[in-house]
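Budget justification aside, the reviewers requested a transparent look at the raw inputs and outputs of the sequence design task funded under Objective 1. We therefore reproduce one unedited record. The lines immediately below are the structure tokens for a 269-residue chain.
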């Protein structure tokens, strides 16, 4: 693992000379964020040693470096998912590389299904906590002490200061915004009505197939983390869900400009 991290780090440093202390992971339908960056360098994932390759529509598969509001940032234009067949170590490998490159803060965005009856399509949920419902764990196996502790404390995965800044930014831009609990599940099937009801009973406000493994590794690595969920579909117990992945991508794209405004504001703050 350490050798792979160093090889990926060395390649990126030679190609991009990164100075970023903030990194952003873009979820489904949010690839257009990179058009707002004063771009310095773009590296396809396929070119980076040991990086997986995105196989899902809506995930472009580039590591982009540049400036946003005068701040150096690193952007993952698309992420990797457990359901694609990757191991948890592969899914979270880019987070390890970010840490090695000097990143201190990671903003994780995703598209998710709302279960809280107060949520509507187009709302923004800030992750105050999560439930890990994946069948595998990114820290399973022998711990490498140089990367983080064997038993990281998960009492405050999502940085409270960043949460306050994001909430203030969302309100400033007139967005309906909530703080809630995200449950991360394996996928790739969308949820059955019974599953939606079970996840809600467990205390989750929205559900998705990403973010939790990355947040765990951020915590393990000692990086600050902010999680942003765009509510792209909402469970209605009175009607069977008919949403498709294309519907989710479309809803995410409609929210793109507002999410960009919030992230810009958070970075400025």
């Amino acid at each position: 693992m350490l050798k792979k991290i160093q090889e990926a780090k060395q390649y990126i440093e030679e190609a991009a000379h990164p100075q970023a202390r903030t990194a952003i992971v873009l979820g489904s339908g949010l690839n257009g964020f990179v058009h707002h960056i004063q771009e310095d360098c773009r590296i396809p994932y396929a070119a980076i040693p040991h990086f997986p390759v995105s196989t899902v529509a809506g995930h472009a598969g580039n590591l982009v470096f540049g400036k946003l509001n005068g701040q150096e940032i690193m952007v993952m234009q698309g992420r990797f998912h457990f359901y694609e067949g990757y191991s948890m170590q592969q899914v979270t490998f880019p987070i390890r590389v970010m840490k090695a490159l000097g990143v201190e803060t990671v903003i994780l965005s995703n598209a998710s299904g709302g279960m809280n009856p107060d949520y509507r399509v187009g709302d923004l949920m800030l992750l105050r906590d999560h439930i890990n419902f994946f069948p595998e764990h990114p820290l399973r196996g022998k711990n490498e002490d140089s990367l983080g502790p064997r038993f990281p404390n998960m009492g405050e995965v999502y940085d409270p200061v960043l949460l306050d800044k994001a909430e203030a930014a969302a309100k400033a831009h007139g967005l309906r915004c909530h703080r809630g609990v995200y449950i991360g599940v394996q996928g790739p099937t969308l949820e059955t009505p019974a599953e939606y009801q079970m996840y809600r009973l467990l205390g989750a406000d929205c559900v998705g197939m990403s973010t939790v493994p990355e947040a765990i590794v951020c915590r393990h690595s000692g990086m600050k983390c902010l999680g942003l969920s765009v509510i792209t579909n909402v469970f209605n117990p009175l009607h069977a869900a008919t949403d498709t992945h294309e519907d989710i991508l479309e809803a995410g794209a409609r929210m793109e400009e507002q999410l960009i405004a919030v992230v810009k504001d958070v970075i400025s703050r």
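The two ends are 35 Å apart (CA to CA). The chain has seven helices and nine strands. Computational costs for records of this kind are itemized in the attached budget.
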